[in-house]
Design goal:
Largest interface: A-B, 36 and 38 residues
Helix content of chain A: 40-55%
CATH architecture of the largest domain in chain A: Orthogonal Bundle
Number of strands of chain A: 6
Strand order of the largest sheet of chain A: 1-3-2
Oligomer: homodimer
Shape of chain A: flat
Radius of gyration of chain A: 18 Å
CATH superfamily of the largest domain in chain A: Winged helix-like DNA-binding domain superfamily/Winged helix DNA-binding domain
Structural class of chain A: alpha+beta
Number of domains of chain A: 2
Largest sheet of chain A: 3 strands, antiparallel
Order of helices and strands of chain A: HEHHEEEEHEH
DNA sequence: CTCCGTGCAAACGATTTGCACTATG
DNA sequence: CATAGTGCAAATCGTTTGCACGGAG
């Protein structure tokens, strides 16, 4: 099964990288549609899946919501806003965590791990304060 | 808004605790239906939400499609099997992680964080080996 | 007797799939 | 020219909601 670099695949990849954000499929679809108006949402889904399997982008399965896709494939963690569901990158020093050993204790073979910090992003904090005043 | 301890709520809570597992709503629904056959799936969803808001159970919004609910409300992390989607408890020493400070660096107000180890559980490792032999 | 909770069915949002057609390598 | 990829619509999966009725406090 070889990958063909189709026009739609190329644009999807390029627009995600260009956005420098952690977009969900439908958000990226809106961007890509501006360039290629007849593209289908299914194609965006299919390609995001394929590109992440190929290691060209990252897949973020956070919080049982929409999957988001990461333009940055280097090793890093994420911080998640519970209000607007935005995701930002984070650099955590992962000292003192031996995931292999922890997994071994419960009989698991470890393939990776994920640290996710949860909070409220700067924008939503501002909006929250406005709301308070109104009420 | 006070909580009423209805029959269905009591059974849902009891069966989750009894299972000692991280069940998804439909799995718990199957269990509870054996005891109260006319219960509706919507009731299970509503109660799981309410019980987790009340702090009587934990809600897990980790990888995978479904939310899972935790019989154990004490502070701990989780390990997730990518093959069967099962979740187990884990005790990680969270040394060397100052989530407050990390959040502050990107302007977030932190409400919590989540560490999730990802791998393949003992059962699926066994099954995997069987599959290999067959092929 | 007051509302919170329930069952049911329908609605919903995100994602996937079957199909016939298109176009890459 | 074989076969991976596409667009479209319908299907699916997990979850939520509106509504009229039922039962806990």
């Amino acid at each position: 099964m070889q990958l063909r670099m189709t026009n739609q695949r190329e644009i999807i990849l390029r627009e995600l990288k260009k956005s420098k954000a952690h977009l969900a499929a439908d958000e990226l679809y809106d961007l890509v549609k501006k360039i290629m108006p007849r593209i289908s949402l299914a194609t965006v889904y299919r390609n995001l899946e394929i590109l992440s399997e190929a290691g060209l982008i990252g897949k973020l399965e956070i919080s049982g919501r929409q999957k988001r896709f990461d333009f940055d494939v280097s090793d890093h963690d994420h911080i998640y806003c519970t209000v607007c569901h935005r995701v930002d990158n984070l650099n955590i020093e992962r000292k003192g965590m031996d995931s292999e050993q922890l997994g071994a204790e419960v009989g698991y073979t470890i393939t990776g791990y994920r640290v996710e910090i949860i909070g409220i992003c700067p924008d939503c904090q501002k909006k929250g304060k406005k709301m308070e005043k109104k009420q």
